[in-house]
Write a structure and sequence with these properties.
Radius of gyration: 14 Å
CATH class: Alpha Beta
CATH architecture: 2-Layer Sandwich
Strand content: 15-25%
Structural class: alpha+beta
Number of strands: 6
Largest sheet: 3 strands, antiparallel
Distance between the termini: 26 Å
Number of domains: 1
Order of helices and strands: HEEEEHHEHE
Length: about 100
């Protein structure tokens, strides 16, 4: 199933808001637009995966279809806006839907 068909079938959003809280043990992500949807990870790359998994689970995307999906909600940065360490959670608070593009040369 193509990613766009999957997105339409399960009404997946183009963007999601994510509130990220850092603690001494890792990161907690809360998806405020989806009541009760939250996840935890020890590092940021794991958090991105867990946020995607949490949202797809929340939206009742069957596991076998979710595993075949070739897209991610990834943190986006504002264009021409420098990322400062103290503003990291602000930058990571918005995730966007993307289909990874691969090139084998």
């Amino acid at each position: 199933m193509s990613d766009l068909i999957l997105a339409k079938k399960y009404n997946l959003p183009d963007k999601i808001q994510v509130a990220i809280h850092k603690s001494s043990k890792g990161f907690t992500a809360i998806l405020p637009e989806y009541p009760g949807c939250m996840t935890y990870a020890e590092n940021m790359s794991e958090l991105v995966e867990n946020v995607n998994d949490a949202l797809l689970t929340y939206l009742d995307v069957p596991r076998e279809e979710a595993l075949k999906a070739d897209f991610l909600y990834i943190p986006r940065q504002e264009v021409n806006k420098p990322v400062k360490r103290r503003n990291l959670s602000e930058v990571l608070s918005r995730f966007i839907f993307t289909v990874p593009q691969f090139s084998y040369v």
